[in-house]
C-alpha cells in the first residue's frame, strides 16, 4: 500500500501480525499516511504506529489509555547517597500506591478516580542513573545532573481514558467538525492534561513516601497515545511520541538502558514522530512458560544490569520480563539509520517498582 512507511533496519524484527494490523488501519476511510516505527507490535490496534487522517478521527486507534506517557524527573537524591536496600524494603511494604493517601493539588476535582496510582500491566516507576552522556549541551539545557538519581514514570489516564473510549467505541470514525468529534477531542484533551498531572502527583507521592520531596524537577514529559491536529490533518500516535516537542525518552525494559534522544532536523518521513519504547516481542500469555525455568522467586526480581524489581504480582513479573521486549539498541539503530534522532544520553535502571 502506497501510504505505508515502515521505519526499520535489517536487524530489527517486526512481527507479521503487526504489519497486517497496520495495513488494516491504512485502509480505513480518510487515512492519508501510516507509519510503523521500529517498536511496532500488535495490540488491539497496532502499537508503535502513526496514522494520519483527513476529515475523520478514529478513537479506537488510540485506545483506552489516552495520554499514556513517560515522565523523567530528577529526584534531588545524590547517587552516592542512594540506599538501594532501604528503598527496596520501603517499597516492598506497600502493595500499591493507593496504600498511600493522594492529595489532589488542583482546584478542580479529578476525573481520574484512581488519581495517584500508576496502574498495572507495563506501567512502572523506575529509579535510574546516568550511564553515558553523548551530548553535553542538550543535557545542560535539560538540566540533567549526572550526580543525581532520576525517576522515570510510565503511566496514563487510568480508568478515565477507558471511560471516554467506552462512549465512542461503537463509532466507526468521527467526522471532522461533527459534534461527536468535538466532544471526543474535548474529553481527550482533559485526559492528556490529567494523565500528565497524575504522573507528577505519583512522582511526588512516591518520593514523599521515600522521604524526599524538596528538589524534584521534571526534565521531560512525553505522551505516546494521543491525537494531534496539524493543519488539516489529524496525527494519531499509538505508542509513538511527537518529534516536534524537544528531547524524548525511549526506554527498553527493566533490564536495559533507557535512551534520551533529540529529534533530528527532518522527521517528515516518520510523520513527525518517534518510537516510545522497544516494543513487545512476546505475547503476555507466552512469557511464563518460556522463561519460568530460568528464574526463581529472587532472581526474577533482579536484572542483568544488577537492578532490583519490586512487584507483588508474580505473573506480572514474568509478563514484563526483559525477554518479553525487543532489543532497544536495535530500535535506536533503526531511528539513527533513518536520520531521525541524535542520542543525548543513556540511563541505567537501579530499581523498578510496579504498582
Ligand atoms: N525501563 C523500562 N522500560 C519498560 C518497562 N516495561 C516496559 N518498558 C518499555 O516501555 C514501553 C511502554 O510501552 P506501552 O506500549 O505500554 O506504552 C515498552 O515498549 C517497553 O519498551 C520497565 O519496567 N522498565
Ligand atoms: Mn504507555
TrEMBL record:
Mn(2+) 1 binds at residue 123. The keyword Metal-binding applies. Its cofactor is Mn(2+). InterPro entries: RtcB, RtcB-like_sf, RtcB2. GO terms for biological process: RNA processing; RNA repair. GMP binds at residues 122-126, 224-225, 276-279, 354. Its EC number is 6.5.1.8. Binds 2 manganese ions per subunit. NCBIfam families: PRK09588.1, release_rtcB. This is 3'-phosphate/5'-hydroxy nucleic acid ligase.
Amino acid at each position: 500500500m502506497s501510504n505505508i512507511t515502515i521505519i526499520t533496519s535489517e536487524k530489527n524484527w517486526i512481527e507479521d501480525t503487526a504489519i497486517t494490523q497496520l495495513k488494516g488501519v491504512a485502509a480505513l476511510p480518510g487515512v492519508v499516511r501510516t507509519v510503523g516505527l521500529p517498536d511496532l507490535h500488535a495490540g488491539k490496534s497496532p502499537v508503535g504506529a502513526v496514522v494520519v487522517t483527513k476529515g475523520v478521527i478514529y478513537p479506537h486507534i488510540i485506545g483506552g489509555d489516552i495520554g499514556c506517557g513517560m515522565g523523567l524527573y530528577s529526584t534531588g537524591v545524590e547517587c552516592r547517597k542512594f540506599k538501594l536496600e532501604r528503598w527496596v524494603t520501603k517499597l516492598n511494604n506497600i502493595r500499591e500506591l493507593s496504600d498511600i493517601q493522594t492529595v489532589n493539588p488542583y482546584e478542580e476535582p479529578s476525573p481520574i478516580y484512581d488519581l495517584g496510582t500508576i496502574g498495572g500491566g507495563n506501567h512502572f516507576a523506575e529509579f535510574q542513573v546516568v550511564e553515558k552522556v553523548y551530548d553535553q549541551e542538550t543535557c545542560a539545557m535539560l538540566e540533567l545532573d549526572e550526580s543525581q538519581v532520576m525517576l522515570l514514570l510510565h503511566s496514563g489516564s487510568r480508568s478515565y481514558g477507558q471511560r471516554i473510549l467506552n462512549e465512542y467505541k461503537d463509532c466507526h470514525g468521527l467526522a471532522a467538525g461533527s459534534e461527536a468529534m468535538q466532544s471526543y477531542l474535548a474529553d481527550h484533551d482533559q485526559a492528556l492534561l490529567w494523565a500528565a498531572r497524575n504522573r507528577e502527583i505519583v512522582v511526588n507521592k512516591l518520593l514523599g513516601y521515600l522521604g524526599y520531596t524538596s528538589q524534584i524537577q521534571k526534565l521531560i514529559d512525553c505522551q505516546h497515545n494521543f491525537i494531534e491536529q496539524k493543519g488539516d490533518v489529524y496525527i494519531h500516535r499509538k505508542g509513538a511520541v511527537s518529534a516536534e516537542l524537544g528531547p524524548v525518552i525511549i526506554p527498553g525494559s527493566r533490564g536495559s538502558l533507557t535512551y534520551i534522544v533529540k529529534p533530528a532536523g527532518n522527521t517528515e518521513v516518520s510523520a513527525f514522530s518517534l518510537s516510545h519504547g522497544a516494543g513487545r516481542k512476546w505475547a503476555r500469555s507466552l512469557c511464563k512458560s518460556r522463561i519460568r525455568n530460568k528464574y526463581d522467586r529472587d532472581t526474577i526480581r533482579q536484572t542483568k544490569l544488577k537492578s532490583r524489581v519490586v512487584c507483588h504480582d508474580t505473573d506480572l513479573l514474568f509478563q514484563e520480563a526483559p525477554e518479553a521486549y525487543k532489543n532497544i539498541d536495535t530500535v535506536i539503530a533503526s531511528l539513527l539509520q533513518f536520520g531521525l534522532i541524535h542520542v543525548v544520553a543513556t540511563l541505567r535502571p537501579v530499581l523498578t517498582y510496579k504498582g
